[in-house]
Amino acid sequence: MSDLKVPVSPEPPTAAYLLETLFKSTHHIHRHFEEYLSAQGIPAYLTGPRMRFLKFVADAGKIRMSDLAARVGIKARTVTQFVDALEQENVLVRIPDPDDRRATLIQITESAIPLIRKAGNAMSEAAEKLLISLPPESRSQLLKHLYQLAEVKGLNDDMNEDENG
Q: What is the tally of structural domains in the chain?
């Protein structure tokens, strides 16, 4: 493990300093994560949020966009933006709903399945590489603290969906 340059102070860090450090760290981690994915040949349009979105679509098989918005916990217009972008890349396709001719369903294209699998594997590898310096007990502590922070605004439900869904 590298020698960390953590500022030492007799006073606990302020909330502002902690959040600033969290934001900087998140930015740094995200940048390295994206660089790793790019080096593995993963297209830039397969971002983490879009992969999470695609997981819900894959699990459903075929799903209405409104149902998907409710399951993922995002606004309908965000679903539309994701679908438009991913449809343009031939990852998703809109199909008529056989039960309601006014509605459409979305599903993953057959040609996109191997790419999505490859992206998921690359994301797991990137996560392991980025967190390699954290031993299991530190990872558990970090997760606990992240859940505590999320609890402030009631975000734990969404985080639990990610873990279980």
A: 2
